[in-house]
Automatic annotation (TrEMBL):
One record GO biological process: phosphoenolpyruvate-dependent sugar phosphotransferase system
Organism: Bavariicoccus seileri
Superkingdom as given in the UniProt entry: Bacteria
Cellular compartments per GO CC: plasma membrane
Coiled coil: none
InterPro entries reported in the protein's UniProt record: GatZ_KbaZ_carbometab, PTS_IID_man
UniProt keywords, alphabetically: Membrane, Transmembrane, Transmembrane helix
Pfam families given in the database record: EIID-AGA
Protein name: PTS mannose family transporter subunit IID
Transmembrane segments: 124-150, 260-277, 284-302
């Protein structure tokens, strides 16, 4: 029986260091996939001695991937464990590995921004700035050193946590545990991404559907308002009372669609783009097509 292959701490450190360049080749088609593949190369070389196996593994990791650059570390750790089990003969296929990656990247993406960009970094920046304003050279130094210590420590320890947790996941392959986790992670990932459609995709149809003349007393008569601040105060009071800003009530196509099903058109557009991707249409072609439709729709007054 062949000796079991295990990734050394040195190799895992090399992967963690390379993962700091996760966004170095960010692209619109598959986003962080190039940086991910670059980071995992040391592990792939250790796990798969044969060149063909290395090529197949790298192709496997060139699929779409995108999450917060620091929260990619636990995903990387779990992936290392899955690749290690696969190299040792466990029935871990490409779908299982990609499913776990996609399932984890969605929920983790929403955690990184509030923790790092909106909490830790502003706090350290405020500390460094307060020292710098007082003429203390330690201000920028403290910010730079503290930020990188926190960043690197988080990357390394969460990758190790994911690696150890991933090893436990693969202990019961025969019982179907990995398949259940893969399925659950995929469902969770799709749910999170679907929930974000309304936030990421925005379409606003401009054409007016109807214009209705309001009755006297239902709108603000701007020419009758007092001059100066009293007029502004009176306008605010009338708005609070429910008076319209103009004598006409205009209903747009977008307002009708929002009353029917909010977010329906963005959802349909997303599903259409997914259908095009399934038909092997290049993402670059889809992006250019959206640009053309958006600019053309604006010029004719549709969007």
């Amino acid at each position: 029986m062949a000796e079991k292959i295990e990734l050394s701490k040195k190799t895992r450190l090399a992967v963690a260091w390379r993962s700091t360049f996760l966004q170095g080749s960010w692209n619109y088609e598959r986003m962080q996939n190039g940086g991910w593949a670059f980071a995992i190369i040391p592990a792939i070389k250790k796990l798969y001695p044969k060149k063909d196996d290395q090529i197949a593994a790298l192709k496997r990791h060139m699929e779409f991937f995108n999450t917060h650059p620091y929260l990619a570390s636990p995903v990387m750790g779990v992936t290392l464990a899955l690749e290690q089990e696969r190299a040792n003969g466990a029935p871990v296929d490409d779908v299982a590995i990609q499913g776990v990656k996609v399932g984890m990247m969605g929920p983790l993406a929403g955690v990184g921004d509030p923790v790092f960009w909106f909490t830790v970094r502003p706090m350290l920046g405020a500390l460094g700035a307060s020292l710098a304003i007082g003429g203390n050279i330690l201000g920028p130094i403290i910010f730079f050193v503290a930020w990188n210590i926190i960043r690197w420590a988080f990357i390394w320890y969460t990758q190790e946590f994911g690696y150890k947790a991933g090893s436990k996941i693969t202990d019961d392959l025969s019982g179907g545990l990995l398949q259940d986790i893969t399925k659950g992670a995929s469902i969770l990932g799709m749910f999170v991404l679907a929930a974000l459609v309304q936030r990421w995709v925005s379409i606003n149809f401009q054409p007016d559907v109807s214009k209705v003349q309001l009755a006297d007393g239902a709108f603000i008569k701007w020419d009758e308002l007092p001059a100066g601040t009293e007029g502004i105060k009176s306008a605010f009071e009338q708005v609070n009372q429910g008076l319209a800003l103009s004598p006409e009530k205009v209903t747009t196509l977008q307002q009708n669609l929002d009353q029917l099903i909010p977010g329906l058109v963005p959802l349909l557009l997303t599903l259409f783009c997914m259908w095009l991707l399934k038909k092997k249409v290049s993402p670059i072609v889809i992006i250019l097509g959206l640009f053309v439709v958006g600019i053309g729709g604006h010029l004719i007054g549709l969007l």
